[in-house]
Amino acid sequence: MANQDMKRKAWAAGLILAFFAGWELFCLVTGMSDLVLPRPTQIAEVLVARLPVLWPHILQTLATTMAGFVLGVALGVVLGAFIGVSKVAYDTAYPLLIGFSSIPKVAVVPIFVLWFGSGTVPAILTSLAICFFPIVVNIATGLATTEPELEDVLKALGASKMDILWNVGLPRTMPFLFASLKVAVTYAFVGTVLAETVASNRGIGNVMMSASSNFDVPLVFAGLFILAALGVALYVAFSLVERRVTGWATRKNDLVASAQ
User: Fold this and answer.
1) CB contact at 8 A, 34 and 217
2) Contact indicator for 195, 112 with CB cutoff of 8 Å
3) What phi and psi values does residue 24 have, to the nearest 5 degrees?
């Protein structure tokens, strides 16, 4: 089993390296201008050369994203729990949430700027607005899948609605929560960078906007690589925590894999 995992990971790493090698070779063979598509080696050179300058912007984007993400998770869990346990709340809030989620977030950034001015606050709010909806949906779905028979047994044993929610409902939503966290954290970066390109003078989004106006395409791609790396790192971190917290939910898959 361990050998199979190692082989699978080695193949995945090899394919990723082959992708970048093919990208490099394509640019060299076709003579592609770096104003159109820079080579991976050019992007790496820009990252190494400008990392001291980029580092404060990286920290700014990461801090803003995490602030919006944490607030989005808190809001999403509360709203999801409220909607999941109340049919009236579900019928009332769900259409409003779907309507708000359907609004392109680039349209709300100017509103946040009018309310709070340019800077970090609009970026945090945009990150929150774009990432909390998956949390709400998954928490509500997880609570809705709690078996009525189990609730009836607990009520017969004297458990209150709050006891059922706290001891049964919320623990059962953990797989749904972590699935939504891995999606929401990538959305949070989208919201942050979107706001930074419009209403901030710091952050990777602002760096990319300035670089594009100066036709510094390798720096633009460097910013994309930084955002991708941050997103992958946080995704992996949540995946590791998920395995520790919700291992009970995946043990069936582990048993099947070990049997094979």
Assistant:
1) yes
2) yes
3) -60, -45
**244's tokens:** 């520790």
Place of tokens 């992996």: 236
Q: What integer is the mean pLDDT of 3-17?
A: 82
Question: Tokens at residue 168, please?
Answer: 């049964």
- What is residue 260's three-state secondary structure? coil
CA–CA distance, 10 with 16 (Å, rounded to integer) = 10
Q: Which residue type does 8 have?
A: R
pLDDT at 175 over 90: no
Residue 67 pLDDT > 90, yes or no? yes
Q: Are 239 and 250 in contact (CB under 8 A)?
A: no
Say if 17 falls within a structural domain.
Answer: no
What's the structural domain count of the chain?
A: 1
* Measured distance CA(201)–CA(203) in Å, rounded: 7
Any idea what the CATH number is for the domain that residue 231 is in? 1.10.3720.10
Give DSSP secondary structure letters for 21-58.
HHHHHHHHHHT--TTT---HHHHHHHHHHHHHHHHHHH
Contacts 24+ apart (CB under 8 A), 227-230: 227/61, 227/189, 227/193, 230/58, 230/61, 230/62, 230/65, 230/189
In a domain, 18, yes or no: no
Is-contact 83 136, C-beta < 8 A? Answer: yes
- Domain limits at 162? 59-244
| Average per-residue pLDDT for the chain | 81
